[in-house]
């Protein structure tokens, strides 16, 4: 089972291309600061703007640089089932430990369509699959009963739940077996979801505060609940600042301020506004990561 603090790693660019050197350095930065797993080509990795070649390139680079030190869960989801199979097959051949599959966006499939989508992929690619439900980005909410039904398929092992609903998360945790895991997809809910039985988080914010989120998870699982709660409240303003503009714009700007990536982001996204940058920078300084 995938558990702990996983980073939905950003994709650094330079001169319109994937910045391989910066990406490799980011992988090392994360692992050295306690991150439990790396997720390339998630939505925080600007996967929607990557060409097929770049998507596979980023997965390959991350797997190579990680060198089995921590698990790699490759983002391979799409709003096309056949395209998802293509990327998931590549991830398996490249040596990924799992695949993260976002619910098909824009299409707005029915619950049965969602079930058949994930079932189709799971039956064709023998790799551990983490589903990803983020209705705020996809206009598609996968309901608990659909998740519970899919959890019976052996290689569908977890869900990144980002509906923002504690009720929905609780229904999933309560309705699935112990070998199926829920991972937080809303950074502000990492601690509350741990309290009701989640197995960790796949987070955009971890790009800029890996040690702090890893410490929160480790404190909670070791029984130091007060320390985990303290870190939760300390990090809440930071999490909020990373989402005051469209993800991953703020967190990439934060990494730029930290000297870890360049300023480039791909259209149709734009760089962070000066006003937003000033607010975020002040919070980063207050938390002590800058």
Strand element count: 10
Taken from the alpha-carbon principal axes, the silhouette is globular
Biggest beta sheet summary: 8 strands, parallel
Helix content: 40-55%
Helix and strand sequence? EEEHEHEHEHEHHEHEHEHHHH
Report the structural category: alpha/beta
**Level-2 CATH architecture:** Alpha-Beta Barrel
Mean pLDDT: 97
Going across the biggest sheet, name each strand in turn.
Answer: 4-1-10-9-8-7-6-5
Look at the structure and give the CATH class: Alpha Beta
State which percent range the strand residues make up: 5-15%
Total domain count? 1
CATH topology: TIM Barrel
Distance between the amino and carboxyl termini: 34 Å
Number of helices: 12
Oligomeric category:
single chain
Q: What is the CATH superfamily?
A: Aldolase class I
Weakly predicted, low-confidence segments: none
Radius of gyration: 18 Å
